[in-house]
Amino acid sequence: MQRLLPLLPLAALLAACSPDHPQPDNAPPQPKSARAVLGSPQWYAWVDSSLQISDNGHGPDPGSTEWNNAVQRELGQEAPQSQPGSPEWQQSVDSLLRTRAPLAP
């Protein structure tokens, strides 16, 4: 038992660094920007690149009415029914994109 005592801090450190909810092996990897706060510039950039709304920086401003409508069009039948741009809409878009398979390049 005394020989294992020095390993206790290492075990505690490893346990603290382990994810609370590991992703299943078949889950698509989530880019770090996918964890951005809803409505933040990083979140808009992630949604924009996920749905390919802008064309090399040309397109509607993220978060604008035109951009929100473009997101709705890209999502098609899966598009949230809440008011585009609202917090509820952002949450629905976020959840939908997190569960979708990534688009082919």
In short:
This protein has a domain at 32-99. Helix content is 43%, strand content 0%. It is built from four helices and no strands.
Give an overview in words.
- The protein contains four helices and no strands.
- It has a domain of 68 residues.
- The relative contact order is 0.12.
- The radius of gyration is 20 Å and the shape is elongated.
- 43% of the residues lie in helices and 0% in strands.
- It is an all-alpha fold and 105 residues long.
Low-confidence sequence ranges: 18-24
What percent of the residues sit in helical stretches (DSSP H or I)? Answer: 40-55%
Rg, alpha carbons: 20 Å
How many strands, what sense, and barrel or not for the largest sheet?
none
Q: Would you count the extended β strands for me?
A: 0
Report the β-strand fraction as a percent range: under 5%
Order of helices and strands: HHHH
- Rounded mean pLDDT is 77
Given the C-alpha coordinates, what overall shape results?
Answer: elongated
**Class per helix and strand makeup:** mainly alpha
Count of DSSP-assigned helices? 4
Distance between termini?
Answer: 55 Å
